[in-house]
Amino acid sequence: MLEGLIIPWIENFEAQSGSADGKETTDTILVVFNITSSPNPNARPFYSDPVNEQWKAATRAEQKAEARASTSKRAPSLAALSTQMTSGFSEVVSAIRSITPPTPSPAIQMGGINWTPIVQGLVSGLRCIITFKTEG
User: Which structural domain, as residue segments, surrounds residue 44?
Assistant: First the structure.
C-alpha cells in the first residue's frame, strides 16, 4: 500500500529532474521506514498510536548507536591513514629539498675576458632597437 503512494511521487520526481547535465546527488529529504515490524502498522496515521511513536524512537536510537559504533570502528584506520599521509608529505618535502638547483652556465672566457656581460648588453641593446623600430 505504501509503495502505491510513494512510487508515483518518485516517478514524477525522476521525470522532473531527469536531465542529461550529469549532475547527481546522494542527498535526500525522504526517509523510508519499514513499519511492518512495528507494534501497530495499520494505525492511520501511523503516529496516532503512542506505541508506534515509542517504537520509532527506539528504532532511531538503535540506528544512531550503530552509526556511532561504525564511526568509532573507523577511527583507528583514519588515524593510521593520517599518519601515513603525514609521513608521505614529509618524504615529498625532503625529496624536493634534496634536489640541487641548476648550476648557472659558465662564463664565456676568451683571452682572459669575461664576455657574458658584454654579450648580454649587446642582446639587450639590439632588443631595444628592434622594439623601437617596430613601434615607430
Answer: 26-84
